[in-house]
Amino acid sequence: MSSFRDLLVWQKSMDLADVVYRLTRSFPREETFGLAAQLRRSAVSIASNIAEGQGRSSSREFKQFLNIARGSLCELQTQLEIAQRAGLGQAEELGSAAQLSHEVGKLLYLLARSIRAPPKKA
Fold first, then answer.
1. Assigned domain for 84 exists
2. Most buried by CB count within 10 Å: which residue of 22, 49, 59, 82?
């Protein structure tokens, strides 16, 4: 793997960030520095941590950053549910973001699981 850009999970997390940005554009002005900003930060954090982890020198560090990305994903899913309950955003975009978030979650899990720790020295 030559670049984080080659990772399907990174590509999907970038798609998720795009959907979140489109979704939050329709939020009321008073949410600009509230839930809209939180959603955007969480979405950006997912892709950023995948990229940073892939750029690290060890598989252990990569796995750690994938776990951080999973934490940000859980934040995002919670914030999407809050937005839905509060009646913020377009239903179609909320649904698209939720669906993509679940897909990214599965990919993060599978990638983290596939990373093997180096054998322990005797």
1. yes
2. 49
Distance CA 105, CA 9 (A): 9
What span, in angstroms and rounded, lies between the C-alpha atoms of 103 and 86?
Answer: 24
The answer to whether residue 119 sits within a structural domain is: no
This model's pTM is above 0.85: yes
pLDDT tens across 20-56, in order? 999 999 999 888 889 999 999 999 999 999 999 999 9
Find out whether 102 and 13 touch, Cβ atoms under 8 Å: no
Burial class (CB in 10 A: 0-12, 13-18, 19+), 5: exposed
The domain that holds 8 is classified in CATH as 1.20.1440.60
Calpha distance 48→63 (Å, rounded):
14
Cβ atoms within 10 Å, residue 26: 12
